Structure formats: C-alpha cells, structure tokens
C-alpha cells in the first residue's frame, strides 16, 4: 500500500465518521427460552409502524454452533469453554461493528436492535470465565459493553415455560440449543444479575 492509498483510506474513514444519521443501539438479552425472539419481533414491528428505520443484528452463537457440529457439554468450566466464548464474543463484536459502520453510511436516523449481542456469553460463564473472555477481546469492564448501547433489556425466563414447554437438542424447536432446563435457569439467573 502506498502513502497516497493510506492517506485516502484515512480521509474516507474520517469523513465517514461524520456523515449519516443518529444510531440508537438497543440490546435484548437473557437466557435461553426467555422470549427474546418474540419481544424482538414485536419491538421491531412497533418501531417500523411508527416510521422508524430499524436494523436487526442477530446473535452469532446459534449459526456458529450449528456449523461447528454443536457445543460439547464436557467443555463447561474448562479452558475450551473460555476459548469457545472468546471466539463467540469476537465474532459478535465484529458483526456489530461492521453493521454499525454500514448503517453510518445512511443518512437516516436508525434504531439498531441486537438479538442478545455481545452480552450473550456472560449468561453462560462464571464471573472468572467472563473476565477472561472479555479481557481477551480487549474489553476490560462490563461497563464498556453497556456504554456502547442506549438500552439493554433482559427477558426473564418464565418458570412455567421452563417446566412445561422448554425444549432442547435434536427434535426440538431449536436443535442447536444444548442447555438442559437447569442450565437454562442458571443462564437466566446470570443474565439478570449481569
């Protein structure tokens, strides 16, 4: 790359940071089966009905888990789990950054709604595991994640759903969901505490 190309790229990046409308980033997070997808759809529909442009950013975990052949439960609370969550957080942050950058090219004000977002991994980690995951992605406090958002909503898991309707694994409505009902309840508790 020559000096002119580097200078041009820097000028374009600088100019791009000053164009476009305002972006309002909202996150819906929580443990598995908490109703995030339903809430996300309703929120999106209501905002669009009011004339607001909305961009959805999906969570990365489900498609990545499906592509890799599933998460191994034997990884829980081992270095493999921390590495798995590090990769998931990195992929999610990259996706969020890329879509936010593309949205900044637009001239309109826009609501960005994240399905789980970068907060997702916290619901499946102990405090020590999450600190390692976060730090390995150069995020040193949870507040750094919160500060990048206008609002974060946690959808609590309904106990009746967990006891009577929750499904996971092969043959379920979400075959990449590997959490047993007790693991889902634990993730829900961690998400609410976060």
TrEMBL record:
Q: Which residues form a coiled coil?
A: none
Which protein is depicted?
NadR/Ttd14 AAA domain-containing protein
Gene Ontology molecular functions: GTP binding; phosphatidic acid binding; phosphatidylinositol binding
One Pfam family this sequence matches: AAA_28
Looking at the record, the residues that make up the NadR/Ttd14 AAA domain are 25-156
Please give the InterPro entries that the UniProt record associates with this protein. NadR/Ttd14_AAA_dom (IPR038727), P-loop_NTPase (IPR027417), TRPL-trafficking_regulator (IPR053227)
